[in-house]
Amino acid sequence: MTAIVVATTGSKCLPVMLASIESYVPRDVEIYVIGAPVHLYSHETHWDINDTTNFGDAYNKVANWAFQKHDRIILANDDIVLTPTSYQYMVEDYDMVAKDHKVGYMACKTDYARPAQNIRCYRKPGGVRYAEEGMVLYAEAISPIFAMISKEAWVDFGPINWFSDDVQSDDIIKKGYRNFISRSYVHHVGSQTLGEENYTKSYLEAKPWIEANRPELFKKWYEPHGS
Predict the structure, then answer these.
(1) Same domain, yes or no, for 187 and 200?
(2) 220 lies in which domain range?
(3) Most buried residue, 46, 194, 197, 201, by CB count within 10 Å?
């Protein structure tokens, strides 16, 4: 059985996200939320406070809580909207690929994410959609905007915001798993009001932890920029 886990700080998008779960996710999927006292009449719902200070620790808390009962979970942002096939394709693609590969993340495609997951970056024509939208793709680094992972493949995030998903993706690969991108699609509102100054602030705040804990990635992400 799979659970969906969400960490929130009170996003205005959360009610719409939860409504899409009620509409499109099977009733036997349990929902775990930290940061908002939510209850879905359609699904068994668990909630707790979010007493963390960064993205990594927040999702570690809710994921490890769900892993006490479930072997697989789906991490979900609080600012997404599922479609009728988001959950279905995620599960189907994970199960198909897991027959031949040790799957780390099976992540969604979306309209606001890194290029590998972003449908705006595809180029091959395929009717009213790009051909790649109907394919399962391999990717080294993914953003778990809506992404399935097993308890066995799970590695805790670092206690940071910026680069937390990149570090975790790298750790999952080092553990012997591969990350993939599903046919599953969700609409992602995203932090599109975040200014350049805040991007720079988040980038620099992660620097000490990455330098101390992932020196090989520090060289890749910081030293070329001289910052």
Answers:
(1) no
(2) 195-227
(3) 46
Type of residue at 21: I
Does residue 200 sit in the same domain as residue 90? Answer: no
- The residues facing 147 across adjacent strands are 75, 107
pLDDT of amino acid 195: 44
- Say how many domains are in the chain: 2
For residues 70 and 116, membership in a common domain is answered with yes
Return the pLDDT at 133: 82
In this structure, the answer to whether residues 76 and 93 fall within a common structural domain is yes
Beta-strand runs (E) in the chain? 2-7, 30-34, 45-48, 72-76, 80-82, 103-110, 125-126, 129-130, 137-138, 146-150, 178-188
Distance between CA 154 and CA 74 in Å, rounded? 11
Shared domain check, 205 and 184 = no
**Rounded CA separation 208/59 (Å):** 21
Residue-wise pLDDT for 174-226, tens only, equals 999 999 999 999 999 976 544 445 677 888 889 999 999 999 999 988 976 54
pTM of the predicted model over 0.85: yes
| Span 52-73, pLDDT tens digits | 989 999 999 999 999 999 999 9
Contacts of 41 by beta carbon, 8 Å cutoff, 6+ apart: 22
Which CATH number fits the domain that encloses residue 151? 3.90.550.10
Provide the terminal-to-terminal Cα distance of the chain, rounded to the nearest Å: 45
126 pLDDT tier (thresholds 50, 70, 90) = low
CA distance linking residue 105 with residue 94, whole number of Å = 9
Do residue 37 and residue 129 come from a single domain? yes
